[in-house]
Amino acid sequence: MAGLTPEQLATFQENGFLVIPDYLSLSEVESLLKETDTLLNNFSLDSHPLTQFTTGDDDTADHVGDEYFLSSGDKVRFFFEPDAFTTEPDPITGRAALIKPKHLAVNKIGHSLHTLSPPFKAVSLNERNASVARSLGFTDPRVLQSMIICKQPSIGGAVPSHRDSEFLYTDPPSAVGWWYALQDATPGNGTLGFWKGSHKGRKGGHITRRFVRKADDKGTEFIENTGPALPKGADEEKVSGPTDEDLEVVDVKAGSLVLIHGNVLHKSEKNTSSRSRFAYTFHVIEGAEGWDYDKRNWLQPPDGGFSRLNQ
């Protein structure tokens, strides 16, 4: 497999993201949607802690420190939309109650679909993706943090602007996201928005903060990054940050792959439409000598380490 064309690679390097249409076949998309529906309908609420997903920017969000979230790196777990619950707790249980059917209440399913779900493993750990990773300069690409993002109709939460290497930090930064549209993603249902070129040093693309486990391992927090802020070989000069003129909201057809540089600033808005916006995503980091995965990152490797992409 040839990987990216020179033109595709140049676009990725210039903008910090790349949309590749028709990367998945229709049968692959249908298989992933079928598996997603099965997962959403078949998990049990009986022992579920009803963990709600937030991005961690909200200091009142306890879930980013709970065991269900922190131990999900090698499991398949379900995280709910905050807007799928009552605003006031139940007077008997003391907890908010779901006001949506469970299959319409889940924000995301994660974080090891690439090892535990055969359909998702098939589109993740394959030679085609390994070829793309080699095009991007990876020597020993490792896959981690795979998840289905549901963006449910009318309640799918916004994701504020962030850079992925803040959450999956290597020294130096190396993360790249693989984001597959399983349904059409448009400005109407909360698609991705990128600040073009914001991964570059001269555009303020430095990793200045990191999302880590607290020292007692009982919570998470954002801290200042004191390590390398840009990938190896990147221009360290910082001239200015991204502007509103740099923002591009993309229109992505189902089956497309979006490659996302770990330092590019991006976001998605709340889905206020009547259409869901399902996507599957995982990240790749460099596992070769000279890149260290930080021991304080919220997600820690399972026994045996993260999955090799070119195995």
UniProtKB/TrEMBL annotation:
Gene Ontology molecular function: dioxygenase activity; metal ion binding
Keyword Phosphoprotein among record annotations: no
Region Disordered: start-end pairs: 222-242
InterPro entries hit by this protein: Phytyl_CoA_dOase-like (IPR008775)
Cofactor entry: Fe cation
Pfam families reported for this sequence: PhyH
Protein family according to the UniProt entry: Belongs to the PhyH family.
Protein name as catalogued: Phytanoyl-CoA dioxygenase domain-containing protein 1
Organism: Penicillium cinerascens
